[in-house]
Structure formats: structure tokens, C-alpha cells
Amino acid sequence: MTPAAADAPGLSAAPLLIIAALAVAALLVLIMRFRMHAFLALILVSLITGLVAGIPAEKVVPTLLSGFGTTLGSVALLVGLGAMLGRLVEVSGGAQALADDLIRLFGERRAPLALGVASLIFAFPIFFDAGLVVMLPIIFTVARRVGGGLLRYGIPAAGAFSCMHVFVPPHPGPVAATELLKSDIGLVTLVGFVIAIPTWYVTSYLFGLWIGRRIDVKVPDILSGGPQAAAVANPPKSSTVILLLLLPLAIIFLNTGLDALGAAGTFDRKAQWFQVARGLGATPIALLVAVLVASYALGARRGRSGADIEKLVDSALGPICSITLITGAGGMFGGVLRASGIGDALAQALDGLGLHIFIAAYVIAAALRIAQGSATVALITAAGLVQPAVEAAGYVGVDRAAIVIALGAGSVIASHVNDSGFWLVGRFFEMDLKTTLKTWTVLETLISLMGFALAGLVFALF
């Protein structure tokens, strides 16, 4: 339990859940009915929720700032650097060149499949928010080039990053759950892939095609710093763009691979070289390296002056300011819910229901996800709660791996207003709140349900 929660008056689960439900309802009404800006609504509702839920008055504002700062610390650098990289790729003509080659290779009808498969590959080593930002300029360019609306291309790609993030190591949630349940990391990775691929195909690719025909979302200019750049007479080769996109992925892959090997005991996590390598391979550093290399390869090497490059990357930051602040405020709201003890009370209430351990793992993770927003927090917390029962039941091998996947499936369900990822996707796709609920929230719920069903099949058969 968080310090703030420990100082709360100790409300039981029922009142806390009522407070959380009313807070979410208030947000929806303020944004959808009264058209209050999402940033203001999130701050206001977070403040009132903290006070009503029993966080001491003198700690409410520090709790708000902590939740806001924690989210910005993980998102702002990734979004800012990713936007710079995207602007360089777009203005140089690289995004258009890669889009043309993808369409030539796969055909226009298979462009969503091509983007989805590319995103699955990129999503293996890279985390959700960073991977999505890096892929967005390619997604937007293909969507403009082929037509048919953004969702037809954006949902398969975004769903790919989400599936890999919750089901497959070396992403932090599955790795932490694997350690807590003392499962085998290689087996969890194998089972995770077996479940993630068909889940993505049905819930993200097929659903993306279906929803794209029913909801028309225009391709935004958010990563272009304005209207789409004019056609470039001599664009870089698509292979150059692919190498630039793979550069941060390679660095991050080495970093997360080291972490997985450290968790498995192959390397000493306390060794100096290990700490240095992990630091240099962090996602923000990887994206910084990619921006610097792109500034040379797509800028200076192609005749642009330093002043011109500086102006280009600066123009990428203005449009994403609103996205970053709203995402931080979404993290603030989730942080208040966690600090109030809502997640702890809910977990304790569910822990005594007497469900089968496999079902209990999913239900607890899902409830925590809906209550406080963070998929990683939900997955890790639920894993800690069910770990003694898993040990007592004597599950080993594939059974434990399937329980890890069930936890991951529960942790991704029903992304909504207390999830920073909900705001990140909604704002980058320039969707209003209602459309984001009808698309992103439904997508995440489908991923959760199908992932759980497939994990249950693996648990029952093997």
C-alpha cells in the first residue's frame, strides 16, 4: 500500500469503489457533456477524488504532482524524441518512400497487415508508448497514401504493441510476473508468442478493418508540425529509414535482453558493466541516439543546415505539448486512485472469493486495471497476490506460464480515462473521448478476453 493510502481513514472496498465509479462518471460528463478540456477535467476530478477518498488534505497536492511527474517522466521524453524523429523522417520524404515500398511489396489491400506485422516485430523489444510514437509517421503516411481512414491502419499497429506489451517478455509486466511466480522466462516467452499472434490477428487486424469501415477518423498532422510536407524530389531510400527505425529498437532490445538474462541469473545485475550497459540502453537514450543519427543522415548529409534542422525538430514539439500534458494528467488520476487505497481494497476483497486460481488471477488483474488504470501495476500486484496460492497448488511448467499470461490478459482490459495510454492513443489519433472509448477501449477489452480464453486453453490442455 502506498504511504498516502496508509494515512487514509481506512474506507472499505465498497465506498472506495463507489468513489472511483463516480470519479470516472464525473470525468465523462465534464468532457463529453460540458466540453471541459480534458487536462482541466482530469486535474479537477483528481483533486476532488483525493479529498473524498480520504487522502490527508496536506498530501493531496503532493500526490497529484507525484502521479503527474511519474507519468511525464516515462512519457514526455519518449513522445518528444519520437516526434522529432518522426518529423525528420516525414520532411525528408523517408516516410513516403517507405510507405510506397510497403504498398508496392504487399499491395494496397494488405497495407494494414503489413503495418501490423511490422509493429509486431518492432514491439518485441520496445515498450508500447515508444514503439507507437516511432511507427506513427509511417502509419499516417500509408493511411494518406492509400486512403480509407486512419483506424484501418492505426488499430492493427497499436494493437500489436499492446499485445506484445502484456503477453511477451522482455516487457516489464510479464517479466515481473514471471519472477514473482517463479516461472521459466523462456517458456513464458514461447507461450506468450503463441497467444499474442492469433490474439492480435483477430482483435487488432480484423477488428481494425471492421471498425475502420464504420468510423471515419481523418489522418492528423500531429507529427508533421503542420500540414503534410510537400513531395521531396530525391527522398532517402526506404532501407535508410528502416535502419533508422531499427537503431533504437536494437539498442532497446539489447537492454531488455540484458534485463531478462539478469532476471534469469545469467548475469550479475549488480556488476558495474551491467549497470552501465543497462543505463546506456534505456529507451530515452536509444531514441536520443536515433534522433541524432537521423539529424545527420536525413538532414546534414542531405544538405540541410544546422539552423534548418533545429527549426525542423523544434516544430515537432509544439503539436505534441497537449498530448503530453493530458497523458500526464491521466497518470495523475490513476495515481490518486492508487494512493487512495482503492486498488488495495479491491484486491483484498477479491482475494477471498474462493475462485479457481487461474480465474482468480485474471479477475484480480482485470479489476485492478479497471480501478487504477496502469496495466503494469495491475499485472504485478495481481501476481503478488496469487503467488502463494500458485505455490501451494504445485503448478509447474506450462501451467505457471499460462497463469502469467492470464494475469497479462486481465491487466489490459477496458482501458479508459484513468489510463495514460488511453489519452496517448486518443490524442495522437485526434479522436474525441466517445470515439476513443468505442475504438481503443473496445480493442483492449477484446485483447483481454481472447488472450484469457487462449491462455485457458493452454492451461487445460498442457
Key words describing this protein structure:
462 residues; disordered N terminus; mainly alpha
Percentage of residues in strands: under 5%
Provide a count of the helices: 21
How many domains?
1
H-E order: HHHHHHHHHHHHHHHHHHHHH
Mean pLDDT: 86
Largest sheet: none
Helix content: over 70%
Structural class: mainly alpha
- Span from first to last CA? 36 Å
Q: Any idea what the shape is?
A: globular
Structural notes for this entry:
This protein is mostly helical and 462 residues long. The protein has one domain. Helix content is 78%, strand content 0%. The protein contains 21 helices and no strands. Helix 3 packs parallel to helix 15, helix 4 crosses helix 14 and helix 16 runs antiparallel to helix 17.
Question: How would you summarize this macromolecular structure in one to three sentences?
Answer:
Helix 4 packs across helix 14, helix 16 packs antiparallel against helix 17 (357-372) and helix 17 packs antiparallel against helix 18. 78% of the residues lie in helices and 0% in strands.
Itemize the secondary structure elements and their pairings.
Elements lengths: L2 H4 L6 H21 L4 H15 L4 H35 L2 H13 L4 H13 L4 H19 L4 H17 L4 H9 L4 H30 L23 H26 L8 H9 L2 H17 L6 H10 L1 H23 L2 H10 L5 H16 L2 H19 L3 H15 L8 H9 L4 H29 L1
Helix pairs in contact: 2-3, 2-16, 3-4, 3-15, 4-7, 4-13, 4-14, 4-15, 5-7, 5-11, 6-7, 6-8, 6-10, 7-8, 8-10, 8-21, 9-18, 9-19, 10-19, 10-21, 11-12, 11-13, 15-20, 16-17, 17-18, 17-19, 18-19, 19-21, 20-21
